[in-house]
């Protein structure tokens, strides 16, 4: 948030209203976690008890991820073949979200987003914990392979950031609980190196003008990736005629998975039916000017990344920024292992 106020690469500076909204969201989330911990003390589990709980689901989880492997491999190969027919590989980014040559039907894309996406994220987190805490590499290796395939299907980079953050945070949290061997540390470094190389590879494919030997390219993308969401949200928030300010969705945005599934079912009987959040948020994929590059003075375009604040605000307005993060913080603290 502080970096976004400096406009280091030319992004517009978020308004004070948006900056305060971010602080409120973080404070509300923290308060929810504190409230739960203040009146309920969780019993401490021994490492042996934790390991028994994890082992109970280990086989099921491992083979569940392995079942995804041929599916993602098929889609990645198909995505590659389609990209070879395009003028530039970067055009595949737009086609990957709903093109019938890849998905046959948009319902399959929705199913992928609702099932494969969450399972992959869960696999990344569980695999990181098992590796750092118990030196079990299997699920982490499967998760990394699936992440690489997923990124090449969509030319997406978010999955790599999930991997890096998950590995680094688990190492910070658990490194003192067990003696860390040199082999484990080396495996961690190699994993992060593979992730970073894949991240760079996808980045250069997405951008026609990308120069992987130019440090400024990585600098500007790192700054923009983590700050452009504030700018997009700010533009919608300050525009009185935007869908954010004119169409509240009253919880349908927060429960997006439920909205998409029920929408598919209802459209079997009412072909033109579409839930309000889905209908009004389609313009998120339209690129918007969010600033001007400090070097070239060319417009900076961005789309899609409106942050979780957008969903909470669209559902309940200012109350959404107070209540939804509080509930999320409370539940996170309650189910924290």
Please describe the topology of this protein.
Blueprint: H1 16-39, H2 47-83, H3 92-95, H4 100-103, H5 106-134, H6 138-154, H7 158-174, H8 182-206, H9 215-238, H10 243-246, H11 256-267, H12 276-280, E1 288-292, E2 299-302, H13 307-316, H14 318-334
Antiparallel strand pairs: 1-2
Helix pairs in contact: 1-14, 2-5, 2-6, 5-6, 5-7, 5-11, 6-7, 6-8, 7-8, 13-14
Keywords:
14 helices; two-stranded antiparallel sheet; mainly alpha; 3% strand; single chain; 337 residues
Characterize the structure shown:
The protein is an all-alpha fold. Helices cover 68% and strands 3% of the residues. The longest helix has 37 residues. The radius of gyration is 21 Å and the shape is globular.
Short structural summary:
With 337 residues, the protein is an all-alpha fold.
Q: Report the average pLDDT across residues.
A: 78
Query: What is the molecular shape?
Result: globular
How large, in whole angstroms, is the Cα Rg? Answer: 21 Å
Low-confidence stretches: none
The portion of residues forming beta strands comes to under 5%
Query: What is the total tally of β strands?
Result: 2
How many strands, which pairing sense, and closed or not: the largest β-sheet?
Answer: 2 strands, antiparallel
* Helical coverage, percent range: 55-70%
Helix and strand content put the structural class at mainly alpha
What distance separates the N and C termini?
A: 29 Å
List SSEs in N-to-C order. Answer: HHHHHHHHHHHHEEHH
Number of helices: 14
Can you list the strand order of the major beta sheet?
1-2
